[in-house]
Design brief:
Elements (H helix, E strand, L loop, with lengths): L1 E4 L6 E4 L2 H14 L1 H9 E13 L4 E11 L4 H17 L12 E7 L1
Parallel strand pairs: 4-5
Antiparallel strand pairs: 1-2, 3-4
Length: about 110
């Protein structure tokens, strides 16, 4: 890598050689294969229904979503449920003011 200092400033940066950029791009694509496989296995996603309240379970705002998979794969089903649930929590969707969706129920079929 080549170090470049901008004259008259405290700025400096490095230029990355073309070959290193290509290796990084190739490595990124290799790491994406499991992700692409997961997408290719999902045929369809659709919301079943939205339950505003369930006093018996003390729940509010549950969205039921169904994933239809290309083939029956219990490992993928479990991973899909976990990934979607984690994404819902990470995105803080249930915390958005005025948003009625507070939780998800993820169903997976093949």
């Amino acid at each position: 890598m080549r170090r470049i200092i901008v004259r008259g400033t405290d700025k400096e940066f490095y230029t990355v050689p073309f070959e290193l950029k290509q290796v990084a791009k190739f490595a990124f694509k290799i790491r994406q294969f499991p992700h692409f496989k997961k997408h290719a296995t999902v045929k369809m996603v659709y919301p079943n229904f939205f339950r505003e309240k369930n006093p018996e379970l003390n729940e509010k705002g549950k969205l039921f979503i169904t994933y239809i998979l290309e083939k029956d794969d219990n490992t993928l089903k479990a991973q899909l449920k976990e990934d979607v649930g984690d994404e819902f929590k990470t995105a803080l969707i249930g915390s958005i003011p005025g948003n009625g969706v507070k939780s998800l129920k993820i169903l997976v079929e093949s």
